[in-house]
Amino acid sequence: SYEKVVCSLFLPLLLYLSIMNENNDKYTEIIKSLNDSLSEENKKLKEKIGTLEHKIEKIEMSPTSIGTEQDIISELIDRQLRANNIIVFNLPESTNQDYDKLKNMFNNIMMANILNFSCTRLGKLIQNDNSKPRPLKVILRNSLESLIVLRSQAKLRSSSDWTNIRCASDRTLKQREHMTSLRNELQRRSPQK
Fold first, then answer.
1. What is the pTM (predicted TM-score) of this model?
2. CATH number of 84-180
3. What's the pLDDT score for residue 39?
4. 3-class DSSP state for residue 59?
5. 56-95 per-position pLDDT tens digit
6. Residues 6 or more apart from 177 whose CB is under 8 A from it?
7. Rounded CA gap, 113 and 106, in Å?
8. Are 122 and 136 in contact (CB under 8 A)?
9. Under a CB-based contact definition with an 8 Å cutoff, are residues 145 and 151 in contact?
10. Do the beta carbons of residue 168 and residue 85 sit within 8 Å?
11. Domain ranges of the chain
12. Phi, psi at residue 187, to the nearest 5°?
């Protein structure tokens, strides 16, 4: 009878311990699985942080990034000064006829009705039959006239005499560098043909 009492008391306890061991094994597996998942997620986050740190360093070291307030102010002033200007490409070189050619192009071909402007050739004159004509910087009265010319340059393509002439806004050095980097990025991203 003593054995029955002990068995009756210890049997549930043994059963309870057995269940606890099974549950303990399950919990251990769950904890191990969670640790593995967290470890993997932590590894991915560290890789992303490393990539972001690299990108930040690259941006900070970029020569096109504007650093100081003085640089920003001088860039804005330079852009404001250039807002009235356009650059004309591929207009054949002539001694003193650039103004007349431009006046004809603006008023007869583009119908822009621009009367007062000044123009100068950019770069050194190279005496070579195969050389491209130097770009022409045109200074207009206001930025509205430059927008009118830039918007109406499509009319040049319809005229056989003016089809190769191109106009562009007068960009600052930082703007040109930025456009070059954007073109390079576009070429890098676009699929090779």
1. 0.59
2. 3.30.70.1820
3. 92
4. helix
5. 888 777 765 556 778 888 889 999 999 999 999 988 887 6
6. 63, 64
7. 7
8. yes
9. no
10. no
11. 84-180
12. -65, -40
